[in-house]
Amino acid sequence: MSLNGHVPIFPRLKAASLCCEVARGLCSPISPGHGIGRPSVSHAVVVIFLEFFAWGLLTTPMLTVLHETFPQHTFLMNGLIQGVKGLLSFMSAPLIGALSDVWGRRSFLLVTVFFTCAPIPLMRLSPWWYFAAISMSGAFSVTFSVIFAYVSDVTEEHERSTAYGLVSATFAASLVTSPAIGAYLSACYGDNLVVLVATLVALADICFILLAVPESLPEKMRLNTWGAPITWEQADPFQSMRKVGKDPTVLLICITVFLSYLPEAGQYSSFFLYLRQVINFSSATIAVFIGVVGILSIIAQTLILTVLMRTIGNKNTVLLGLGFQILQLAWYGFGSEPWMMWAAGAVAAMSSITFPAVSALVSRSADPDKQGLVQGMITGIRGLCNGLGPALYGLIFFMFNVDSYRKMKFCIYNTVSLSIQKSLIPGPPFLLGSCTVVVAFLVALFIPENTEPPVVTCADAKDTSMLAGVHINTPLPGSDEDTPAPTSDEDFEPLLQDSFV
Protein backbone atom coordinates (compact mmCIF):
# COMPACT_ATOMS: atom_id res chain seq x y z
CA MET A 1 0.00 0.00 0.00
CA SER A 2 1.14 3.53 -0.69
CA LEU A 3 1.23 6.30 1.91
CA ASN A 4 -2.06 7.82 0.73
CA GLY A 5 -3.88 4.53 1.06
CA HIS A 6 -4.17 3.76 -2.65
CA VAL A 7 -2.80 0.82 -4.61
CA PRO A 8 0.38 1.74 -6.55
CA ILE A 9 -0.02 2.27 -10.26
CA PHE A 10 1.96 -0.75 -11.48
CA PRO A 11 -0.02 -3.42 -9.58
CA ARG A 12 -3.20 -1.76 -10.78
CA LEU A 13 -2.00 -1.98 -14.38
CA LYS A 14 -1.14 -5.65 -13.93
CA ALA A 15 -4.53 -6.32 -12.39
CA ALA A 16 -6.27 -4.52 -15.26
CA SER A 17 -4.25 -6.52 -17.77
CA LEU A 18 -5.14 -9.75 -16.01
CA CYS A 19 -8.83 -8.82 -16.02
CA CYS A 20 -8.67 -8.12 -19.76
CA GLU A 21 -7.13 -11.54 -20.38
CA VAL A 22 -9.82 -13.25 -18.29
CA ALA A 23 -12.56 -11.32 -20.10
CA ARG A 24 -11.10 -12.31 -23.44
CA GLY A 25 -11.14 -15.96 -22.42
CA LEU A 26 -14.77 -15.76 -21.32
CA CYS A 27 -16.07 -13.83 -24.30
CA SER A 28 -14.08 -15.83 -26.86
CA PRO A 29 -15.12 -19.41 -26.16
CA ILE A 30 -13.13 -20.75 -29.10
CA SER A 31 -9.58 -19.74 -29.74
CA PRO A 32 -8.49 -18.43 -33.14
CA GLY A 33 -5.92 -21.14 -33.72
CA HIS A 34 -8.43 -23.96 -34.14
CA GLY A 35 -10.17 -25.12 -37.30
CA ILE A 36 -9.38 -27.12 -40.40
CA GLY A 37 -7.34 -25.37 -43.06
CA ARG A 38 -7.46 -21.69 -43.81
CA PRO A 39 -10.79 -19.80 -43.59
CA SER A 40 -12.70 -20.06 -46.85
CA VAL A 41 -16.14 -19.70 -48.38
CA SER A 42 -16.57 -23.47 -48.10
CA HIS A 43 -16.77 -23.18 -44.31
CA ALA A 44 -19.53 -20.57 -44.57
CA VAL A 45 -21.45 -22.66 -47.09
CA VAL A 46 -21.50 -25.73 -44.83
CA VAL A 47 -22.67 -23.71 -41.81
CA ILE A 48 -25.56 -22.13 -43.71
CA PHE A 49 -26.62 -25.38 -45.37
CA LEU A 50 -26.79 -27.38 -42.13
CA GLU A 51 -28.69 -24.71 -40.19
CA PHE A 52 -31.45 -24.17 -42.74
CA PHE A 53 -31.58 -27.84 -43.69
CA ALA A 54 -32.44 -28.61 -40.05
CA TRP A 55 -35.25 -26.06 -40.04
CA GLY A 56 -36.50 -27.14 -43.46
CA LEU A 57 -36.99 -30.69 -42.15
CA LEU A 58 -39.47 -29.31 -39.61
CA THR A 59 -41.83 -27.73 -42.16
CA THR A 60 -44.46 -30.47 -41.89
CA PRO A 61 -44.24 -31.15 -38.11
CA MET A 62 -44.29 -27.42 -37.33
CA LEU A 63 -47.55 -26.90 -39.24
CA THR A 64 -49.10 -29.77 -37.29
CA VAL A 65 -47.88 -28.58 -33.89
CA LEU A 66 -48.94 -24.99 -34.64
CA HIS A 67 -52.51 -26.07 -35.42
CA GLU A 68 -52.72 -28.41 -32.42
CA THR A 69 -51.40 -25.76 -30.02
CA PHE A 70 -53.53 -22.88 -31.32
CA PRO A 71 -56.59 -24.50 -32.95
CA GLN A 72 -58.80 -21.41 -32.70
CA HIS A 73 -56.38 -18.67 -33.83
CA THR A 74 -53.69 -20.47 -35.80
CA PHE A 75 -52.93 -17.70 -38.29
CA LEU A 76 -52.96 -14.95 -35.66
CA MET A 77 -50.53 -16.74 -33.33
CA ASN A 78 -48.27 -17.71 -36.22
CA GLY A 79 -48.11 -14.07 -37.30
CA LEU A 80 -47.37 -12.82 -33.78
CA ILE A 81 -44.65 -15.43 -33.19
CA GLN A 82 -42.91 -14.73 -36.49
CA GLY A 83 -43.40 -10.98 -36.05
CA VAL A 84 -41.74 -10.90 -32.63
CA LYS A 85 -38.88 -13.00 -33.98
CA GLY A 86 -38.42 -10.67 -36.96
CA LEU A 87 -38.45 -7.51 -34.86
CA LEU A 88 -35.92 -8.90 -32.37
CA SER A 89 -33.68 -9.93 -35.25
CA PHE A 90 -33.94 -6.43 -36.74
CA MET A 91 -33.04 -4.82 -33.41
CA SER A 92 -30.07 -7.07 -32.62
CA ALA A 93 -28.41 -7.41 -36.04
CA PRO A 94 -26.32 -4.18 -35.90
CA LEU A 95 -25.07 -4.92 -32.36
CA ILE A 96 -24.03 -8.48 -33.16
CA GLY A 97 -22.35 -7.29 -36.34
CA ALA A 98 -20.40 -4.65 -34.40
CA LEU A 99 -19.38 -7.15 -31.72
CA SER A 100 -18.17 -9.63 -34.35
CA ASP A 101 -15.85 -6.88 -35.63
CA VAL A 102 -14.26 -6.80 -32.17
CA TRP A 103 -14.30 -10.41 -30.98
CA GLY A 104 -14.18 -12.30 -34.26
CA ARG A 105 -16.68 -14.10 -36.50
CA ARG A 106 -16.24 -17.64 -35.25
CA SER A 107 -17.54 -17.02 -31.72
CA PHE A 108 -20.66 -15.32 -33.04
CA LEU A 109 -21.26 -18.03 -35.63
CA LEU A 110 -21.41 -20.45 -32.72
CA VAL A 111 -23.70 -18.19 -30.68
CA THR A 112 -26.15 -17.45 -33.52
CA VAL A 113 -26.40 -21.05 -34.74
CA PHE A 114 -26.78 -22.43 -31.19
CA PHE A 115 -29.57 -20.08 -30.12
CA THR A 116 -31.33 -20.23 -33.50
CA CYS A 117 -31.47 -24.05 -33.38
CA ALA A 118 -32.07 -24.35 -29.60
CA PRO A 119 -35.91 -24.45 -29.95
CA ILE A 120 -35.85 -27.51 -32.24
CA PRO A 121 -35.91 -30.30 -29.59
CA LEU A 122 -38.60 -28.43 -27.62
CA MET A 123 -41.14 -29.11 -30.39
CA ARG A 124 -41.99 -32.54 -28.99
CA LEU A 125 -41.19 -31.78 -25.35
CA SER A 126 -43.36 -28.69 -24.84
CA PRO A 127 -45.04 -26.85 -27.73
CA TRP A 128 -45.64 -23.73 -25.64
CA TRP A 129 -41.97 -23.48 -24.70
CA TYR A 130 -41.09 -24.25 -28.32
CA PHE A 131 -42.99 -21.27 -29.71
CA ALA A 132 -41.80 -19.01 -26.90
CA ALA A 133 -38.20 -20.02 -27.65
CA ILE A 134 -38.71 -19.36 -31.38
CA SER A 135 -39.89 -15.83 -30.62
CA MET A 136 -36.97 -15.09 -28.31
CA SER A 137 -34.43 -16.70 -30.64
CA GLY A 138 -34.96 -13.79 -33.01
CA ALA A 139 -32.43 -11.83 -30.97
CA PHE A 140 -29.77 -14.23 -32.28
CA SER A 141 -31.26 -15.23 -35.66
CA VAL A 142 -28.74 -13.20 -37.61
CA THR A 143 -26.47 -15.96 -38.87
CA PHE A 144 -26.53 -14.49 -42.37
CA SER A 145 -25.05 -11.21 -41.14
CA VAL A 146 -22.08 -12.98 -39.56
CA ILE A 147 -21.71 -15.36 -42.52
CA PHE A 148 -21.49 -12.53 -45.04
CA ALA A 149 -18.96 -10.76 -42.82
CA TYR A 150 -16.97 -14.02 -42.74
CA VAL A 151 -17.10 -14.23 -46.53
CA SER A 152 -16.01 -10.61 -46.79
CA ASP A 153 -12.97 -11.41 -44.63
CA VAL A 154 -11.78 -14.34 -46.76
CA THR A 155 -12.39 -13.07 -50.29
CA GLU A 156 -10.99 -10.29 -52.40
CA GLU A 157 -13.14 -7.64 -54.03
CA HIS A 158 -13.47 -9.33 -57.42
CA GLU A 159 -14.44 -12.66 -55.79
CA ARG A 160 -17.00 -11.33 -53.35
CA SER A 161 -20.12 -11.15 -55.54
CA THR A 162 -19.61 -14.75 -56.68
CA ALA A 163 -19.06 -15.88 -53.10
CA TYR A 164 -22.23 -14.14 -51.89
CA GLY A 165 -24.15 -15.76 -54.71
CA LEU A 166 -22.80 -19.18 -53.71
CA VAL A 167 -23.93 -18.70 -50.10
CA SER A 168 -27.39 -17.53 -51.19
CA ALA A 169 -27.72 -20.46 -53.62
CA THR A 170 -26.75 -22.87 -50.83
CA PHE A 171 -29.46 -21.40 -48.62
CA ALA A 172 -32.01 -21.89 -51.40
CA ALA A 173 -30.81 -25.45 -52.09
CA SER A 174 -31.20 -26.45 -48.43
CA LEU A 175 -34.82 -25.28 -48.39
CA VAL A 176 -35.59 -26.91 -51.73
CA THR A 177 -34.59 -30.40 -50.54
CA SER A 178 -35.24 -30.54 -46.79
CA PRO A 179 -39.07 -30.07 -46.64
CA ALA A 180 -39.58 -33.05 -48.97
CA ILE A 181 -37.26 -35.22 -46.87
CA GLY A 182 -39.01 -34.12 -43.68
CA ALA A 183 -42.46 -34.85 -45.14
CA TYR A 184 -41.35 -38.34 -46.22
CA LEU A 185 -39.89 -39.18 -42.81
CA SER A 186 -42.98 -37.82 -41.07
CA ALA A 187 -45.32 -39.93 -43.21
CA CYS A 188 -43.28 -43.12 -42.76
CA TYR A 189 -41.93 -42.86 -39.22
CA GLY A 190 -43.74 -40.00 -37.48
CA ASP A 191 -42.89 -36.47 -36.41
CA ASN A 192 -40.70 -37.58 -33.50
CA LEU A 193 -38.09 -38.98 -35.86
CA VAL A 194 -38.10 -35.78 -37.93
CA VAL A 195 -37.47 -33.67 -34.82
CA LEU A 196 -34.67 -36.05 -33.78
CA VAL A 197 -33.00 -35.86 -37.20
CA ALA A 198 -33.30 -32.05 -37.25
CA THR A 199 -31.74 -31.88 -33.78
CA LEU A 200 -28.84 -34.08 -34.87
CA VAL A 201 -28.25 -31.93 -37.96
CA ALA A 202 -28.20 -28.79 -35.78
CA LEU A 203 -25.72 -30.46 -33.39
CA ALA A 204 -23.57 -31.41 -36.38
CA ASP A 205 -23.55 -27.75 -37.43
CA ILE A 206 -22.45 -26.64 -33.96
CA CYS A 207 -19.71 -29.31 -33.85
CA PHE A 208 -18.54 -28.25 -37.31
CA ILE A 209 -18.12 -24.66 -36.12
CA LEU A 210 -16.27 -25.79 -32.99
CA LEU A 211 -13.93 -28.22 -34.72
CA ALA A 212 -13.58 -27.18 -38.35
CA VAL A 213 -14.29 -23.46 -38.83
CA PRO A 214 -11.19 -21.25 -38.44
CA GLU A 215 -11.37 -17.61 -37.43
CA SER A 216 -11.58 -15.30 -40.45
CA LEU A 217 -10.97 -11.91 -38.83
CA PRO A 218 -7.22 -11.15 -38.96
CA GLU A 219 -5.47 -11.27 -35.59
CA LYS A 220 -4.16 -7.72 -35.87
CA MET A 221 -7.69 -6.38 -36.34
CA ARG A 222 -8.97 -8.20 -33.27
CA LEU A 223 -6.04 -7.11 -31.14
CA ASN A 224 -6.35 -3.48 -32.23
CA THR A 225 -10.07 -3.35 -31.58
CA TRP A 226 -10.25 -5.49 -28.43
CA GLY A 227 -11.93 -3.57 -25.68
CA ALA A 228 -12.99 -0.77 -28.02
CA PRO A 229 -16.35 0.61 -26.91
CA ILE A 230 -19.42 -0.17 -29.00
CA THR A 231 -21.19 3.11 -29.60
CA TRP A 232 -24.96 3.52 -29.75
CA GLU A 233 -24.62 4.59 -33.37
CA GLN A 234 -23.17 1.17 -34.24
CA ALA A 235 -25.92 -0.69 -32.38
CA ASP A 236 -28.85 1.51 -33.46
CA PRO A 237 -30.93 -0.42 -36.06
CA PHE A 238 -32.63 2.80 -37.23
CA GLN A 239 -29.37 4.68 -37.78
CA SER A 240 -29.14 4.16 -41.53
CA MET A 241 -32.87 4.70 -42.16
CA ARG A 242 -32.80 8.17 -40.58
CA LYS A 243 -30.97 9.41 -43.69
CA VAL A 244 -33.52 8.05 -46.17
CA GLY A 245 -35.09 11.40 -47.06
CA LYS A 246 -31.86 13.21 -47.92
CA ASP A 247 -31.80 11.96 -51.52
CA PRO A 248 -35.05 11.93 -53.59
CA THR A 249 -33.98 8.91 -55.66
CA VAL A 250 -32.98 6.89 -52.60
CA LEU A 251 -36.26 7.87 -50.93
CA LEU A 252 -38.28 6.52 -53.88
CA ILE A 253 -36.29 3.27 -53.88
CA CYS A 254 -36.76 2.81 -50.13
CA ILE A 255 -40.51 3.40 -50.36
CA THR A 256 -40.68 0.86 -53.18
CA VAL A 257 -38.77 -1.71 -51.14
CA PHE A 258 -40.95 -1.19 -48.06
CA LEU A 259 -44.28 -1.44 -49.92
CA SER A 260 -43.19 -4.50 -51.92
CA TYR A 261 -41.34 -6.46 -49.24
CA LEU A 262 -43.92 -5.95 -46.46
CA PRO A 263 -46.46 -8.32 -48.12
CA GLU A 264 -43.65 -10.63 -49.23
CA ALA A 265 -42.43 -11.07 -45.64
CA GLY A 266 -45.98 -11.75 -44.47
CA GLN A 267 -46.46 -14.25 -47.28
CA TYR A 268 -43.30 -16.16 -46.35
CA SER A 269 -44.45 -16.49 -42.75
CA SER A 270 -47.95 -17.84 -43.41
CA PHE A 271 -48.22 -19.24 -46.91
CA PHE A 272 -47.45 -22.89 -46.16
CA LEU A 273 -49.90 -22.79 -43.25
CA TYR A 274 -52.43 -21.26 -45.65
CA LEU A 275 -51.94 -24.10 -48.13
CA ARG A 276 -52.46 -26.65 -45.36
CA GLN A 277 -55.40 -25.04 -43.55
CA VAL A 278 -57.41 -23.38 -46.32
CA ILE A 279 -56.45 -25.03 -49.63
CA ASN A 280 -56.12 -28.47 -47.95
CA PHE A 281 -52.72 -29.35 -49.40
CA SER A 282 -51.21 -32.52 -47.96
CA SER A 283 -47.76 -32.49 -46.35
CA ALA A 284 -46.23 -34.22 -49.37
CA THR A 285 -47.85 -31.75 -51.78
CA ILE A 286 -46.53 -28.79 -49.79
CA ALA A 287 -43.02 -30.26 -49.89
CA VAL A 288 -43.22 -30.74 -53.66
CA PHE A 289 -44.62 -27.21 -54.04
CA ILE A 290 -41.67 -25.75 -52.11
CA GLY A 291 -39.21 -27.69 -54.24
CA VAL A 292 -40.73 -26.74 -57.59
CA VAL A 293 -41.15 -23.05 -56.78
CA GLY A 294 -37.65 -22.97 -55.29
CA ILE A 295 -36.07 -24.41 -58.42
CA LEU A 296 -38.02 -22.00 -60.63
CA SER A 297 -36.91 -19.09 -58.42
CA ILE A 298 -33.26 -20.06 -58.77
CA ILE A 299 -33.63 -20.15 -62.55
CA ALA A 300 -35.43 -16.80 -62.54
CA GLN A 301 -32.78 -15.12 -60.38
CA THR A 302 -29.88 -16.36 -62.49
CA LEU A 303 -30.60 -16.94 -66.17
CA ILE A 304 -33.78 -14.93 -66.70
CA LEU A 305 -32.66 -11.99 -64.57
CA THR A 306 -29.35 -11.68 -66.42
CA VAL A 307 -31.14 -11.66 -69.79
CA LEU A 308 -33.67 -9.07 -68.63
CA MET A 309 -31.01 -6.77 -67.21
CA ARG A 310 -29.14 -6.79 -70.50
CA THR A 311 -32.19 -6.36 -72.75
CA ILE A 312 -34.81 -4.16 -71.04
CA GLY A 313 -32.60 -2.43 -68.47
CA ASN A 314 -32.46 -2.14 -64.69
CA LYS A 315 -35.55 -0.06 -63.93
CA ASN A 316 -37.80 -1.95 -66.34
CA THR A 317 -36.71 -5.22 -64.74
CA VAL A 318 -37.79 -3.87 -61.36
CA LEU A 319 -41.17 -2.85 -62.79
CA LEU A 320 -41.60 -6.26 -64.42
CA GLY A 321 -40.83 -8.01 -61.16
CA LEU A 322 -43.35 -5.84 -59.31
CA GLY A 323 -45.94 -6.65 -61.99
CA PHE A 324 -45.41 -10.37 -61.44
CA GLN A 325 -45.70 -9.84 -57.67
CA ILE A 326 -49.04 -8.02 -58.06
CA LEU A 327 -50.36 -10.87 -60.20
CA GLN A 328 -49.26 -13.67 -57.89
CA LEU A 329 -50.57 -11.98 -54.72
CA ALA A 330 -53.95 -11.29 -56.34
CA TRP A 331 -54.04 -14.89 -57.57
CA TYR A 332 -53.31 -16.19 -54.09
CA GLY A 333 -55.99 -13.89 -52.68
CA PHE A 334 -58.81 -14.95 -55.02
CA GLY A 335 -57.69 -18.51 -55.76
CA SER A 336 -59.53 -21.34 -54.02
CA GLU A 337 -58.45 -24.37 -56.06
CA PRO A 338 -55.14 -26.25 -55.87
CA TRP A 339 -54.30 -25.69 -59.55
CA MET A 340 -54.55 -21.93 -58.96
CA MET A 341 -51.90 -22.16 -56.25
CA TRP A 342 -49.54 -24.00 -58.61
CA ALA A 343 -50.04 -21.42 -61.36
CA ALA A 344 -49.56 -18.54 -58.92
CA GLY A 345 -46.43 -20.27 -57.59
CA ALA A 346 -44.85 -20.14 -61.04
CA VAL A 347 -45.64 -16.42 -61.21
CA ALA A 348 -44.19 -15.99 -57.70
CA ALA A 349 -40.91 -17.49 -58.92
CA MET A 350 -40.74 -14.80 -61.59
CA SER A 351 -41.47 -12.08 -59.04
CA SER A 352 -38.32 -13.09 -57.14
CA ILE A 353 -36.26 -11.05 -59.62
CA THR A 354 -37.46 -7.82 -57.97
CA PHE A 355 -35.03 -7.46 -55.10
CA PRO A 356 -31.81 -8.35 -56.98
CA ALA A 357 -32.82 -5.80 -59.62
CA VAL A 358 -33.54 -3.20 -56.92
CA SER A 359 -30.10 -3.86 -55.41
CA ALA A 360 -28.43 -3.23 -58.74
CA LEU A 361 -30.55 -0.10 -59.23
CA VAL A 362 -29.42 1.18 -55.83
CA SER A 363 -25.80 0.56 -56.77
CA ARG A 364 -26.21 2.51 -60.01
CA SER A 365 -28.19 5.37 -58.49
CA ALA A 366 -26.15 6.13 -55.36
CA ASP A 367 -22.93 8.12 -55.27
CA PRO A 368 -19.71 6.14 -54.91
CA ASP A 369 -19.16 7.30 -51.34
CA LYS A 370 -22.72 6.35 -50.27
CA GLN A 371 -22.91 2.74 -51.43
CA GLY A 372 -22.63 1.17 -47.99
CA LEU A 373 -25.04 3.67 -46.44
CA VAL A 374 -27.75 3.18 -49.07
CA GLN A 375 -27.47 -0.59 -49.08
CA GLY A 376 -27.72 -0.45 -45.29
CA MET A 377 -30.96 1.49 -45.59
CA ILE A 378 -32.42 -1.16 -47.88
CA THR A 379 -31.33 -3.98 -45.59
CA GLY A 380 -32.74 -2.17 -42.55
CA ILE A 381 -36.10 -1.65 -44.23
CA ARG A 382 -36.30 -5.31 -45.18
CA GLY A 383 -35.43 -6.29 -41.62
CA LEU A 384 -38.22 -4.09 -40.29
CA CYS A 385 -40.64 -5.70 -42.77
CA ASN A 386 -39.64 -9.14 -41.48
CA GLY A 387 -41.19 -8.11 -38.18
CA LEU A 388 -44.19 -6.11 -39.37
CA GLY A 389 -45.24 -8.32 -42.30
CA PRO A 390 -45.99 -11.56 -40.41
CA ALA A 391 -47.83 -9.70 -37.64
CA LEU A 392 -49.92 -7.79 -40.21
CA TYR A 393 -50.87 -10.96 -42.10
CA GLY A 394 -51.77 -12.79 -38.89
CA LEU A 395 -53.98 -9.91 -37.78
CA ILE A 396 -55.80 -9.73 -41.14
CA PHE A 397 -56.39 -13.49 -41.15
CA PHE A 398 -57.87 -13.12 -37.66
CA MET A 399 -60.05 -10.12 -38.57
CA PHE A 400 -61.55 -11.99 -41.54
CA ASN A 401 -62.07 -15.21 -39.53
CA VAL A 402 -60.14 -17.29 -42.03
CA ASP A 403 -59.74 -20.03 -39.42
CA SER A 404 -63.51 -20.34 -39.37
CA TYR A 405 -63.98 -20.61 -43.13
CA ARG A 406 -62.75 -24.18 -43.33
CA LYS A 407 -65.06 -25.19 -40.44
CA MET A 408 -68.19 -23.95 -42.23
CA LYS A 409 -69.71 -26.32 -44.76
CA PHE A 410 -72.92 -25.06 -46.26
CA CYS A 411 -75.58 -22.43 -45.72
CA ILE A 412 -79.16 -23.03 -46.83
CA TYR A 413 -80.78 -19.99 -48.39
CA ASN A 414 -83.90 -20.20 -50.62
CA THR A 415 -83.40 -24.02 -50.68
CA VAL A 416 -80.09 -23.50 -52.51
CA SER A 417 -76.94 -24.86 -50.92
CA LEU A 418 -74.23 -22.20 -51.02
CA SER A 419 -70.62 -22.64 -49.96
CA ILE A 420 -69.65 -19.87 -47.56
CA GLN A 421 -65.98 -20.47 -48.13
CA LYS A 422 -66.24 -19.94 -51.89
CA SER A 423 -68.47 -16.87 -51.56
CA LEU A 424 -65.77 -14.98 -49.65
CA ILE A 425 -62.20 -14.03 -50.50
CA PRO A 426 -60.09 -17.02 -49.39
CA GLY A 427 -56.91 -15.01 -48.78
CA PRO A 428 -57.62 -11.40 -47.73
CA PRO A 429 -54.01 -10.58 -46.68
CA PHE A 430 -52.69 -11.54 -50.11
CA LEU A 431 -55.22 -9.28 -51.79
CA LEU A 432 -54.28 -6.38 -49.53
CA GLY A 433 -50.62 -7.13 -50.25
CA SER A 434 -51.24 -6.86 -53.98
CA CYS A 435 -52.72 -3.40 -53.41
CA THR A 436 -49.59 -2.22 -51.57
CA VAL A 437 -47.42 -3.56 -54.41
CA VAL A 438 -49.55 -1.58 -56.88
CA VAL A 439 -48.60 1.55 -54.94
CA ALA A 440 -44.96 0.40 -54.99
CA PHE A 441 -45.19 0.00 -58.78
CA LEU A 442 -46.51 3.56 -59.14
CA VAL A 443 -43.70 4.91 -56.95
CA ALA A 444 -41.10 2.96 -58.92
CA LEU A 445 -42.25 4.64 -62.14
CA PHE A 446 -40.71 7.90 -60.88
CA ILE A 447 -37.30 6.38 -60.08
CA PRO A 448 -34.73 7.77 -62.54
CA GLU A 449 -32.52 5.13 -64.05
CA ASN A 450 -28.86 6.08 -64.09
CA THR A 451 -27.13 4.24 -66.91
CA GLU A 452 -23.63 4.96 -65.58
CA PRO A 453 -22.92 2.84 -62.49
CA PRO A 454 -20.64 4.43 -59.90
CA VAL A 455 -17.36 2.83 -58.93
CA VAL A 456 -17.71 1.05 -55.60
CA THR A 457 -14.64 1.13 -53.39
CA CYS A 458 -13.42 -1.81 -51.38
CA ALA A 459 -14.32 -0.10 -48.10
CA ASP A 460 -17.88 0.56 -49.29
CA ALA A 461 -18.32 -3.04 -50.35
CA LYS A 462 -17.11 -4.26 -46.98
CA ASP A 463 -19.52 -1.93 -45.17
CA THR A 464 -22.34 -3.22 -47.35
CA SER A 465 -21.55 -6.83 -46.55
CA MET A 466 -21.56 -6.07 -42.84
CA LEU A 467 -25.03 -4.56 -43.08
CA ALA A 468 -26.49 -7.50 -44.97
CA GLY A 469 -29.25 -9.44 -43.28
CA VAL A 470 -31.32 -12.28 -44.58
CA HIS A 471 -30.69 -11.32 -48.18
CA ILE A 472 -27.51 -9.91 -49.65
CA ASN A 473 -27.23 -7.17 -52.19
CA THR A 474 -24.91 -8.63 -54.81
CA PRO A 475 -24.03 -7.40 -58.29
CA LEU A 476 -25.54 -9.41 -61.10
CA PRO A 477 -23.42 -11.78 -63.19
CA GLY A 478 -22.30 -10.01 -66.31
CA SER A 479 -23.28 -6.54 -65.07
CA ASP A 480 -20.93 -3.62 -64.74
CA GLU A 481 -20.84 -3.90 -60.94
CA ASP A 482 -19.11 -7.27 -61.26
CA THR A 483 -15.92 -5.51 -62.38
CA PRO A 484 -13.56 -4.98 -59.43
CA ALA A 485 -12.70 -1.44 -58.45
CA PRO A 486 -9.04 -0.47 -58.51
CA THR A 487 -7.43 -0.39 -55.10
CA SER A 488 -4.20 1.08 -53.87
CA ASP A 489 -1.42 -0.81 -52.15
CA GLU A 490 -2.30 0.91 -48.89
CA ASP A 491 -5.84 -0.46 -48.95
CA PHE A 492 -4.81 -3.99 -49.84
CA GLU A 493 -5.44 -6.71 -47.29
CA PRO A 494 -3.89 -10.18 -47.69
CA LEU A 495 -7.25 -11.92 -47.92
CA LEU A 496 -7.50 -15.49 -49.02
CA GLN A 497 -8.38 -16.18 -52.65
CA ASP A 498 -10.69 -19.16 -52.65
CA SER A 499 -10.02 -21.34 -55.68
CA PHE A 500 -13.46 -22.94 -55.51
CA VAL A 501 -15.17 -19.54 -55.88
From TrEMBL:
Which Gene3D superfamilies does the record cross-reference, listed alphabetically? Answer: MFS general substrate transporter like domains
Task: Say which species the protein is native to.
Answer: Oncorhynchus tshawytscha (Chinook salmon)
Q: Where is this region: Disordered?
A: 473-492
Pfam families, per database record: MFS_1
Please report the record's description of how this protein sits within the membrane.
Multi-pass membrane protein
TM regions (residue ranges): 44-63, 75-96, 103-122, 128-151, 163-187, 193-213, 250-275, 281-305, 317-334, 340-362, 383-400, 430-447
- Which PROSITE patterns does the entry mention? MFS, SUGAR_TRANSPORT_1
Q: Which GO terms describe its cellular component?
A: membrane
Similarity section: Belongs to the major facilitator superfamily.
* Localization per Swiss-Prot or TrEMBL: Membrane
Q: Which UniProt keywords apply?
A: Membrane, Transmembrane, Transmembrane helix, Transport
- Which gene codes for it? LOC112257408
Domain Major facilitator superfamily (MFS) profile positions: 40-452
What name does the UniProt record give this protein? Major facilitator superfamily (MFS) profile domain-containing protein
The principal localisation class reads membrane
DNA-binding keyword on record: no
